[in-house]
Write a structure and sequence with these properties.
With 418 residues, the protein is an alpha/beta fold. 44% of the residues lie in helices and 9% in strands. The protein has 18 helices and nine strands. The strands form three sheets. A five-stranded parallel β-sheet has the order 2-5-1-6-9. A two-stranded antiparallel sheet has the order 3-4. The chain is globular, with a radius of gyration of 21 Å.
Amino acid sequence: MTTPLLHRIRRVVVVASSPRGGSSLLAEHLRSCPDLVHLPGETPPLLTLAGLDPVQRNGSEVLTPEDAAAFSGPLAEQLALELGNPSETWDPETLSTWLLRRLSMQWPDEEFPLDQVRRYMQSAASSTPPPSHADEFSGLVDFHLEFIAEVRKGHPSVNPYYYDIAASKVSGRFPDLPVPQGPPGSRLVEVPPFLIARPWRPAAPEDLERRTLVVKAPGCSYQIPFFQALFPNAQVRVLHLTRAPGPSVNGLISAWHHRGFFSRRVSAELSITGYSDAYPDWGTSWWNFDCPPGWTDMVKEPLAGVCAFQWHSAHRAALQEAQAGGHDVLRLRHEDFVGTPDQRRAATHALGEWLDLPGSAIDALTRTTIGPVSAVTAPNENRWLRKRDLIAPFLVSPEVHDVSAALGYDSIALKPTA
């Protein structure tokens, strides 16, 4: 399946959000629904493997219909390898191939022969058998830690601290391994925190025609016309996930200081106060998260200002596309999705109805509980108030204020205004 795959897909939902806005948790929650089609992770690694670097091509995360036309063939090849659903069973050969693909994306400076990966997997499974299925993301951690331990025997640069695994679990399995600093390597394909092993079932052709494909990455806010052109026969709808600016910016600041969210080495020299000066070995050349249009104007700004810029840029792009693109848009608040049980049920039910899911699938979604995903610390919407004096000056800017008002938030308050 190459280009015909792109024509076969009839319904696409693009999750538009700012980084640290809760989209990873939302996407993982939706992966529990077999009535949808998913990618095991985000879209940027597939773009990279297809030879499409948005920043090199267009100077930012923006992708256009022309980019879709130019790269449709290699992108179809990459999508054919990833589109599917979590599976209820493990197949050793499929798992070996999946692990090889992920290792090659996560550690592109290393070489992993398939026979070697098979041996690593078999050895890990002999002491920690992979679970027969995983209804929670965290259920796969123990096996993957054993697998990494085997991989490290031949590839010591493979570091478990860069995976989406709690540091306490990593240190428990690798007590003598120091916590790393800086990016995981000289170049990136998959962006950390890296995916761990999971049972995965490729989508059948009829699944692609009947079910909705969900795509997600922080940069998706700037790429909605691109996806419309990439899937020419599909109705492209937009799931706009919002989160109040204070918690979002605070989460971004914490993540810029974390080892796990580097996105690219940039040619522009970074002089970001609170980041470049704190990490001179890499803080002058490594950017975190997405590169919105105009990001090069921010390379000498304070970190809190950069993070506020990333927040309002992503949501402004989503708002503008909703107004100009004529797409069916559902705006979902992260605060509702992780709020009280009643809020969560109502938000999930509304989401399921908008996705045109059958009642049984909506009921299953409302009952599903997902642990933290790509989290630096335990979720806490009030944590940003500890840094309010640092963050608030950037939340009263006209750019943040206008976007906050459009989304129904007070830019310097914790809760929605409506």
